[in-house]
Amino acid sequence: MNPIDEPNNALLPSGFIDLLQHEAEAEARGIEAVMDVFAQHGYERVRPPLLEFETSLLHGAGQALGEQTFRLMDPESRRMMALRPDMTTQIARIAATRLAASPRPLRLSYAGTCVVVGVPGREGERQITQAGIELIGVDSAEADAEVVLVAAEALAHLGVEDVSFDLSYPALVQKIVDEAGLNAVKRAQLVHALDRKDATAVAELGGSAAEILTRLLQAAGPAGPALEVLAALELSEAARVLADRLREVVAVIHAHAPELRLTVDPVEFRGWQYHTGVCVTVFARGQREELGRGGRYLAHDEEPACGLTLRPEVLLRAARPIALRPRVYVPLGAERTRAAQLRREGYATVVGLDELADYRAEAQRLGCAYILSHDELTKL
Amino acid sequence: MNPIDEPNNALLPSGFIDLLQHEAEAEARGIEAVMDVFAQHGYERVRPPLLEFETSLLHGAGQALGEQTFRLMDPESRRMMALRPDMTTQIARIAATRLAASPRPLRLSYAGTCVVVGVPGREGERQITQAGIELIGVDSAEADAEVVLVAAEALAHLGVEDVSFDLSYPALVQKIVDEAGLNAVKRAQLVHALDRKDATAVAELGGSAAEILTRLLQAAGPAGPALEVLAALELSEAARVLADRLREVVAVIHAHAPELRLTVDPVEFRGWQYHTGVCVTVFARGQREELGRGGRYLAHDEEPACGLTLRPEVLLRAARPIALRPRVYVPLGAERTRAAQLRREGYATVVGLDELADYRAEAQRLGCAYILSHDELTKL
Question: GO BP, one example (chains A, B) (predicted)?
Answer without folding.
Answer: histidyl-tRNA aminoacylation
